[in-house]
Design a protein that fits this description.
By secondary structure, the chain is mainly alpha-helical. The protein has a single domain, classed as 434 Repressor (Amino-terminal Domain), CATH 1.10.260.40. It is built from five helices and no strands. It has helices at residues 5-18, 23-27, 34-41, 49-59, 63-67. The N and C termini lie far apart (43 Å). The model has no long low-confidence stretch (mean pLDDT 92).
């Protein structure tokens, strides 16, 4: 079974929240404006593979576990997350 747009959007929203980013800030690295991020998170717009890959690279998360669909409906977000340092913390 494939992941639905709605479920993928919820997962991306959770990742964005964990990374402490607003919708506007989350989309900036890939030139995606806040309205588009909002539509993706609400399942109203597909996210392109290239967009997802760029977000994953910038925010250090793994795509395969993000897209995993388990029979029991659970999802392990910790399998997605990689070490990340927010830009304002770099120095």
């Amino acid at each position: 079974m494939d992941i639905s747009r709605e479920e993928l959007g919820k997962r991306l929203e959770l990742l964005r929240t964990i990374r402490g980013r607003t919708q506007e800030a989350f989309g900036q690295p890939i030139n995606m404006n806040r309205d588009v991020v909002c539509r993706v998170e609400r399942g109203k717009r597909d996210i392109l593979a290239l967009e997802l890959a760029r977000l994953a690279r910038h925010y250090c998360f793994r795509i395969e576990p993000l897209l995993e669909v388990r029979a029991d409906g659970t999802w392990d977000i910790t399998a997605c997350l990689l070490p990340w340092k927010a830009p304002e913390e770099e120095g």
